[in-house]
Amino acid sequence: MATFEDYCIISQEDLEGIKDSISTQDLPSAINTIKEYLKKQDLVELNIGVTGESGSGKSTFVNAFRGLGDEEEGSAKTGVVETTTEPEVYLHPKYKNMKVWDLPGIGTPNFKADEYLKLVQFERYDFFIIIASDRFRECHTQLATEIMRMGKIFYYVRSKIDLSIEAENRKKNFDLKKTLDTIREDCENGLRKIGIEDPVVFLVSSWELGKYDLNVLQERMEKELPQHKRRVLMLALPNITLEINEKKKKALEEDIGIVALLSACVAAVPVPGLSIAVDLAIIAFEIEKYCIAFGLDKESIEKLCERYGKRIETVESLIKSAWYKGICTGSIITILRNISFLITEDAVESVVRFVPILGAVVAGAMSFWAVSTMLKSALNDIAEDARNVLMSLLETEV
Questions:
Q1: Tens-place pLDDT, residues 126-185
Q2: pLDDT of residue 350
Q3: How many other C-beta atoms are found inside a 10 Å radius of the C-beta of residue 360?
């Protein structure tokens, strides 16, 4: 079983700085210090460049990838003609550190990949997504070749798969798998003809993002990103497949040891009432983060109901834990105060904290255990609620 010493991802210098800071602060200031430190863990930026020919569905993809429809506030402009003339950045509505860039269209007669990449400032992107709505053309290959030459990653996405399926569905011998295989092979063969040796094409519908190759694309991105960037991607992706739901849970589980270690650090500070107050604040802060990551906040639930034609009462009835109601009413702290073992933790710590050296160790261990136990339980409940909501919506689609 892991102990809090196993989670020393935070440097000793960071811990000492936090302890020194909060030991001279009043209670609200100390809590704020811890919250600000936790927020700093989420400041890593992920920049994604989305490019393709005019009319390929770039802007709709930019919106869908951020969990937005084309007409929602903050969405990228869409249209039958090219609406993007210079790089435009669109922030994720809940994770401002994920930036999706809608890049100008490619494919003009005088298109030159090297000049294009200089124009869009290629160095700022972690990777590129190259979108085509039918065959991949020479301009796509030119761009991919230049991106590779400059040491960046790119992904080929064949968009508007829903329209292709709809057209094929009129045929008597329609077979979904064969149709998708044919589209994929056609794209791959087209790319081979223009110089790509081992092409990988991801089939995507921005209107039905959870279908087709989204999970495969996400897995490829996750594999090729550095770990700190991978976390940003996982938390920001819309919670629209069971696979994403499970990976969000794993990403958030990795944070629990760090958060509990901060709690243990606070417990070693001999200020009466500080530890339990900070623990409550930390746990409430993290639980709110969990709800947002899984789309279990009021705004996200309302959007889901609108998108799938469900009554909000029906969806809310699937949410069994108290945390959704807590985040909606701002009563998470009240719910936590009613959990007996946190009160027990405070009572034990108040006695042992003033025993030299050993007391600080015991108090820290108690706090680490209480916070990690509570967060694991809350995360399991919230992930299960999100899974139940998602399964209900997927059944609606079918």
A1: 999 999 888 778 888 888 888 888 888 889 998 888 888 888 788 778 888 888 888 888
A2: 47
A3: 19
Query: For the purposes of burial, counting CB atoms within 10 Å of the CB of 11, is it exposed (0-12), middle (13-18) or buried (19 or more)?
Result: exposed
Tokens found for residue 129: 């997504």
Mean of pLDDT over the chain = 77
**What single-letter DSSP state applies at residue 361?**
H
Distance CA 396, CA 398 (A): 5
pLDDT at residue 2 is higher than 60: no
Distances (CA, A) of 256 to 8, 210, 225, 295: 12, 28, 22, 19
Helix axes 12-23, 242-267, angle to 10 degrees: 60
Helices (H), the chain: 12-23, 27-40, 58-65, 113-119, 138-149, 161-168, 176-193, 214-224, 227-236, 242-267, 274-293, 298-308, 312-316, 323-329, 332-337, 340-352, 358-397
DSSP 116-163: HHHHTTGGG-SEEEEEESSS--HHHHHHHHHHHHTT-EEEEEE--HHH
More confident of the two residues 344 and 189: 189
Q: Nearest-CA neighbor of 346 among 257, 265, 272?
A: 272
Look up the pTM and report it. Answer: 0.77
- Comparing CA positions, the residue from 337, 256, 264, 328 lying closest to residue 292 is 328
- Token couple for 148: 């590779």
pLDDT one-digit tens code per residue, 97-107: 889 998 888 87
Burial class (CB in 10 A: 0-12, 13-18, 19+), 237: buried
